[in-house]
Amino acid sequence: MSEKIYEVPAAWAKKAHLTDAKYKKMYAASIKDPDKFWAEQGKRIDWFKPYSKVRNVSYKPGKVSIKWYEDGTTNVSYNCVDRHLATRAKQTAIIWEGDDPSESKKISYGQLYTEVCKFANVLKANGVKKGDRVTIYMPMIPEATYAMLACARIGAVHSVVFGGFSPDSIANRIEDATSEMVITADEGLRGGRKVPLKANVDAAAEKAPVKTVIVVKRTGGDVAMKDGRDVWYHEEAAKVSGHCPPAEMKAEDPLFILYTSGSTGKPKGVLHTTGGYLVYVAMTHQYVFDYHDGEIYWCTADVGWVTGHSYIVYGPLANGATTLMFEGIPTYPTISRFWDVVDKHKVNTFYTAPTAIRSLMGAGEEPVKRTKRKSLRLLGSVGEPINPEAWEWYHRVVGDDRCPIVDTWWQTETGGIMITPLPGATRLKPGSATRPFFGVKPELVDAEGKVLEGAAEGNLVIAESWPGQMRTVYGDHKRFEETYFSAYPNKYFTGDGCRRDADGYYWITGRVDDVINVSGHRMGTAEVESALVSHPMVSEAAVVGYPHDIKGQGIYAYVTLMTGEKSSEALRKELVAHVRKEIGPIASPDLIQFAPGLPKTRSGKIMRRILRKIAEDEFSALGDTSTLADPAVVDDLIANRQNKR
Ligand code: 6R9
């Protein structure tokens, strides 16, 4: 582990919202008297009716309940749009950069107001009411943001499904959310290639029928429109007014559901609510990115992930920022695309994932160095641990040794950033997410739940609640309690392992459950396994992660075939295609090993520890295998391993 320290640049210490002393003072206050601290912070958004209660939280087993600002009323779309009109109607809210570099546009807050109101009126005209769930399956175009804010405006609950998911995955999410409307586009465009979004929705709706599909025209490609179900957005929008009053929402009314992978079973619908979430994402966006008026801020995530929700849409817009939305990919039309966009739009803050950095690193410095990047002042990282080599490269090559890097640790469940450097305040150590954000009380615990003090390594839990915390698993509160509050009673369990060093800095070491992180995308090994065993020739499957130079982790699948079936290269390809169809391209196994048997205990439990070691090509350290029902299977697994280094 690198222990190199990067001091806060002098210019930063002067200009930033926070200094180290201020951070320490505010942090101490936030932990000492959370009610007072959050009562004050709650004022950063506008309320229709002010709150008198701040926090009402119980982590008690069987009685988990999380409420913030519960008697206040507000509206998220009002806060992200209307309240800026008096001062920022002409300021750019969204810079949209198309897949093709010749296509870009700027949307002012004034225009955003009209677009969001129109979209809200279209939803209403098509029967959407407060509390209804609306599925959004969109490319990275401004209409995705309009649709989200339009739902928030009328009190509908959006469920955004990432455009890379398959029809089956869409169908499962439509069913789980009991959603009767899908908003999509004819096609998406990424790296010059078309993505058949509407066709995927059609296939999903075969399995999970919906009443209405609203289709935004993006490419003009040929799509089928089903009579009585499908409508064109532009035709509907032409019929409605550009004003729509924001609904008065209670602080704890649901804002959105976002599905994420867990260690078991199907993806969970993470539910976030209105008031606390918005306070938290606005506050973290301001401090973590040291956002100042007039700056250009770019988060490269997709709105289909929580990072897109909190740090492309809600946080930045609540703060009246200019947020850049990019439709394309880092390598199209050239591998300099990110930096060309930075120069074109004079981007000040750039927030991306380590996997992107690592893949660009592979192409060397020249594609970066041929661009100027003079506007950049801050870099950010999110989604997975960033290895010190990638951190140093990001700092030196992309940031010209001038820009601090904020390595932000958080989760779909946490709503916003939890452990992070604060530029101006925090000395950086490459590879460390450094210190907790205000109000966040991280603890390290051992397997028995004993809290570890000082420099230590253990499982990361968060004691106490914070306003951006998820409130429940949609439709399954029991699963919520079991997943997050049962391993360590009275604490929120993150699922991550973590080390704390002698300076109190946190180093996330990765998941300790059966969740893997592929290119910053969360994937449950159980999901990939169930996709594999749904193939008629597969009898059993076990999936583990293994270290991958660019993706962080790759997907390694052990597959046992039905008696009489023969393994072949063709079958290997077929299984990869099968998983892509069942879940989506992000779940494609990188390596498949056909195995006559899996290592099981006598009680029939697959010993994943062994499979992980073999996938890592570290089979000399398999540990105790004496409890295996048939230790001989291990020899075969080793002999036929797919990741020989
Ligand atoms: C925001 C987001 C959450 C999981 C999380 C952890 C990993 C995210 C990280 C990080 C190390 C960071 N993770 N940020 N690990 N350093 N800065 O990514 O949400 O998709 O729910 O993933 O990602 O393992 O538990 P989500």
How would you characterize the overall build of this protein?
The protein is globular and about 75 Å long. Helices cover 31% and strands 23% of the residues. It is built from 21 helices and 31 strands. The relative contact order is 0.10. The mean pLDDT is 96. It has two domains: 10-500, ANL, N-terminal domain (Rossmann fold), CATH 3.40.50; 519-640, GMP Synthetase, Chain A, domain 3, CATH 3.30.300. Helix 6 (109-125) packs across helix 7 (142-154) and helix 8 crosses helix 9 (197-207). It has an eight-stranded mixed beta sheet with strand order 12-11-8-6-7-14-15-24, with helices on both faces. Strands 5-4-17-16-18-19-20 form a seven-stranded mixed beta sheet, sandwiched between helices. The two termini are 22 Å apart. With 645 residues, it is an alpha/beta fold. Strand 16 (296-299), helix 12 and strand 17 form a beta-alpha-beta unit. It binds ligand 6R9.
